Amino acid sequence: MASQTGLQVRGRRKAALAFFALVQAAAAVFFVLDAWADLSGGAVDYHTFVEAMIAAGLVMGGLFGVRELSRSHDLLQSHETALAAASGALAEVIDAEFTEWRLTPAEREIGMLALKGFDIAEIAQLRGAAQGTVRAQMTSIYAKSGVSGRAQFAAHFVEDLLAGGVRRDVPKTKTAAE
Fold this sequence. Notes:
This protein is mainly α and 178 residues long. The protein folds into two domains: 6-81; 101-162, Winged helix-like DNA-binding domain superfamily/Winged helix DNA-binding domain (Arc Repressor Mutant, subunit A, Orthogonal Bundle). 77% of the residues lie in helices and 0% in strands. Helix 1 (6-40) runs antiparallel to helix 2, helix 3 crosses helix 5 (131-145) and helix 4 (120-127) crosses helix 5 (131-145).
């Protein structure tokens, strides 16, 4: 069975939600009309009172549900937008750091593959290089970035995300005086 994309799942959920909202609206209309007919006929008894309360509850519940659904949708859109911005900002931060560290194009590619979680053998295979060459380039990346290994290298970039957001400022290139 093919895996479903997030959009397909979200589309099915929206369709199911629309169906149940339609059923709730139909029930509310039925109870409102029934209670209205009973009240118009002058029959104000316990049964009519219960139907009127059920109708009012369904209408209020439907309105509340639509309002909360709208708020939830807006919040989800906001989070998706923030995630996209953070992803883009993180890519900018990585690129700026690689530039500051003066990584070669090969080191940049290897560094990015390492950040994506590929191990030495996989990077070597992807690049058509020897594992020893990739190890040497990773050692050079660690030396230029001032970290001692892969975990610190990755942590350098996720540190800002864990602190509450990605830095929006692009790091300055160090001068000779620094």
